[in-house]
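If I may wish for something, please sit down with the protein I am sending here and say whether tokens and residues agree:
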Amino acid sequence: MSLRDWFENRRNKQLNADLVESKISGDDLLKLWEKCYNCNTSIPQKELEQNMHVCPKCDYHFRIGARERLEQLLDEDSFEEINSNMLPSDPLDFVDTMRYKTRQVDARKKTNLNEAVVTGIGKISDWEVAVAVMDFAYMGGSMGSVVGEKITRLIEEGIKRKIPIIAVTSSGGARMQESCLSLMQMAKTSCAVARANEQKILYITVLTEPTFGGVTASFGTLGDIIIAEQGARIGFAGRRVIEQTIRQKLPSDFQTAEYLLKYGHVDMVFHRSGLKSTLEKLIRIHAPAKQKVNT
């Protein structure tokens, strides 16, 4: 046995002994660390959570769920969810590799959500807002009939209360299992945004990693102010589809938030840590004079 093998065996024995002593399984040990997709750095989960799920080495923004996003953006204990019990149906009795109903059940178990968007009323630095946050973990954040309905109802609630409306997107686009019913949500949500515009209600969209398809083509890019999170990929069709269609190689930064800012498709690009303060400033600047006095 070589000296290297001897040390390797000794290290493995010690590691196994430590695992037995602490009663932590190998799988649990792996959960304590997260590898950055951008720079391959292994980061302790606690450190990543404290850093708002942003890599401390390369600043890569990890995807986060709707509940985590709400905790980051809204004042503590200020969020009241609305329309939480709306569930999707299966009008087409759709089956691909599995039944659509089965996919819905699996998605609910995986995310502990009833759909790919969470909507409700909350506060940002004491400013009341209507907010919708999409969750990519629920069937790729796809927009079906329930997602479109919840977002439409939220916008209508914002109009009713005369408060700013904020939509945080993360989606692969329309939900194919609902066919044309999902495509109809593009028109429905766009009409709701138009009504908010007519009532002079501030509508802000925050585009996060990733935002594509029907969400980009509807309420996602209709904001009075469009903010993109640093490094987020945003577009309609995917990069590979475009390259195959035009038969050209696209720039390395194509469809990133920074690329879209350069060509005027978004108004601002912000680091996750500065997002809440930015939203607060925008809301304060656009608030009616009477509302400013009251606050």
User: Anything to note?
Assistant: DSSP finds twelve helices and nine strands in the chain. The beta strands are 33-35, 42-44, 80-81, 117-124, 127-134, 165-171, 203-211, 225-229, 268-270.
